[in-house]
Amino acid sequence: MNPSPFGEVELIARLARIFGAAPSEVVLGIADDCAALDAGGPDYLLWTVDTLVEQVHFDLAYTSLAQLGRKSLAVNLSDVAAMGGVPLYALLSLGWPPDRDLAGVLEFGEGLASCARDFGVAIIGGDTVASPGGLSLSLTVLGKVPKNEMLQRSGAQVGDLVYVTGPLGEAAAGLEILRRGLKFAPESAAPLIQAHLNPQPQVAAGRLLARENLATACIDLSDGVATDLMHICRLSRVGAHLHAADLPIPPGVERVARMVGREAMELALQGGEDYQLLFTCNPDQESRLPGFFSQAGLMLPQRIGKITPGKDVVLISDGEEKIISGRGYDHFRLDLVKSLD
């Protein structure tokens, strides 16, 4: 397989040009976490879809089918959270290898159902097919958000502050433990492994940010801070400075990084699958964050940087500046993907 001359972002942009302009009732189409549709009434409808492929997104050597079921829905709910929405319904398309026991589908379904119950989502239909090339699945989630509250990637302004709702790099570190079979104290390994196998979509935090008008832009961290913040910057026509000393990197992530000969900063910025929310906040609203998050029983978000003029995402570490724009997970750029192997 040869590296593509362009990456995932450019591929999506080229497809968007092929598909042409969306009809007027589509408020948001390609380029945000969800598509938004105005079907009348006080809310926009939110649609999102995510696909998981065996040996790309998961490995059944260390992921149970029940865990996969939960995660497959959770990653979609994270997209709805990034829009400030409430998830409502889901459709499942499942490609199951014909040489595997169909009882596994039921185990997968139990995990999917448990996540759906936790977030009040109804599984209302879908499709099943034989998949000789390995297990694959796709979930489509429908949600809603009040029209005057929807969060987007495109609202960041120069001077806004950059925040994340939780720790960075845990999922990437957990994957390293599982994939390499690292010897790690169970009590230290557990939160990292759980971050990879059982991500927690920040639906409550997303609703809070939207309802209280605390965020100017928002995205969920699926591909890593470096890539996902660049999405906000590109659509908002701004740049950003990140401060390495402010990144919430847990000690366990730092230890795993040392064990595998990588930098903890790399896991935090490029590892992906944290499924926290990265958002920008007007400085005038910053003082409101602690009270609202504490009252809701949520972890206080961490400020990690600032929106700047220009177009690059710049990491400031020990007084040095380094452009890191786009250095995250990309399905079609092997030069970037190999750095995660």
Automatic annotation (TrEMBL):
Its EC number is 2.7.4.16. Mg(2+) 3 binds at residues 33, 79, 220. Substrate binds at residues 57, 273, 329. SUPFAM superfamilies: PurM C-terminal domain-like, PurM N-terminal domain-like. GO terms for biological process: thiamine biosynthetic process; thiamine diphosphate biosynthetic process. Pathway: Cofactor biosynthesis; thiamine diphosphate biosynthesis; thiamine diphosphate from thiamine phosphate: step 1/1. InterPro entries: PurM-like_C_dom (IPR010918), PurM-like_C_sf (IPR036676), PurM-like_N (IPR016188), PurM-like_N_sf (IPR036921), ThiL-like (IPR006283). Keywords: ATP-binding, Kinase, Magnesium, Metal-binding, Nucleotide-binding, Thiamine biosynthesis, Transferase. Mg(2+) 1 binds at residues 50, 127. Mg(2+) 2 binds at residues 50, 79. Residues 32-145 form the PurM-like N-terminal domain. Residues 157-316 form the PurM-like C-terminal domain. It holds the Pfam family AIRS_C. ATP binds at residues 126-127, 153, 222. Mg(2+) 5 binds at residue 223. Mg(2+) 4 binds at residues 33, 48, 79. It catalyses: thiamine phosphate + ATP = thiamine diphosphate + ADP. GO terms for molecular function: ATP binding; magnesium ion binding; thiamine-phosphate kinase activity. Belongs to the thiamine-monophosphate kinase family. PANTHER family: THIAMINE-MONOPHOSPHATE KINASE (PTHR30270:SF0). Reaction mechanism of ThiL seems to utilize a direct, inline transfer of the gamma-phosphate of ATP to TMP rather than a phosphorylated enzyme intermediate. Catalyzes the ATP-dependent phosphorylation of thiamine-monophosphate (TMP) to form thiamine-pyrophosphate (TPP), the active form of vitamin B1. This is Thiamine-monophosphate kinase. The gene is thiL.
